[in-house]
Write a structure and sequence with these properties.
The chain contains 1 helix and 9 strands; from the N terminus they run H-E-E-E-E-E-E-E-E-E. The protein is of the alpha+beta class. It folds into 2 domains: about 40 residues; about 110 residues, Rieske Iron-sulfur Protein (3-layer Sandwich). The strands form 3 sheets. A 3-stranded antiparallel sheet has the order 1-9-8, with no helix packed on it. The chain has a 3-stranded antiparallel sheet with strand order 2-3-4, with no helix packed on it. A 3-stranded antiparallel sheet has the order 5-6-7, with no helix packed on it. The radius of gyration is 28 Å and the shape is elongated. The model has no long low-confidence stretch (mean pLDDT about 90). Bound molecules: FE2/S2 (inorganic) cluster (FES). The site of FE2/S2 (inorganic) cluster has 11 residues, from loops.
Length: about 170
């Protein structure tokens, strides 16, 4: 028989440490999972959202396309409606964000009679060309963001608006 006997004190220490550790792990694990879960899942980046816009009905005149989707912000899920100004440029579709690059107001197409066929921001008179390029001398310093797009079943799908890449 082994001479190394465990004293009563040691036995109690081991037992209490073991039980305490087990309980602490039991309490901490759900908290850690709760905190990390949304991060592990990631966001559905790169997903394209269906719109009700038929691609065949698009012309070279920008039209307003509203589209709704569910957005999950960590634990909070909400329904969000976004807007795009969409037109056809030859074979290509151009889908522009309506968010002004100055201070974030909403731009409209052809709403300023003095400057027809431009995007106009009523907040500080920002103006953009039809392709989204900001007009020098007006407050915005960058072109409108552009949505990547896809066509599926004849309908327009839009991705996440991104700053325009300079050619
Ligand atoms: S927010 Fe559009 S011009 Fe200022």
């Amino acid at each position: 028989m082994s001479k190394e006997r465990v004293s009563r004190r040691q036995f109690l220490n081991y037992t209490l440490t073991g039980v305490g550790g087990f309980m602490a792990a039991g309490m901490l694990m759900p908290m850690v999972r709760f905190a990390v879960d949304p991060v592990l899942k990631g966001e559905a980046a790169g997903d394209f959202i269906a719109t009700k816009q038929k691609v065949s009905e698009l012309t070279d005149e920008p039209v307003r396309v509203d589209f709704t989707f569910k957005q999950k912000d960590a634990w909070y899920e909400s329904e969000v409606t976004n807007t795009a100004w969409v037109y056809k440029d030859g074979d290509k579709i151009v889908a522009l964000s309506p968010i002004c690059k100055h201070l974030g107001c909403t731009v409209g197409w052809n709403t300023n009679k003095e400057h027809p066929n431009q995007f106009f921001c009523p907040c500080h008179y920002g103006r953009y060309e039809k392709d989204g390029t900001n007009i020098p001398g007006t407050p915005p310093l960058a072109p409108l963001d552009e949505y990547p797009y896809k066509e599926k079943g004849g309908f327009l799908y839009l991705g996440k608006a991104e700053p325009r890449k300079e050619a």
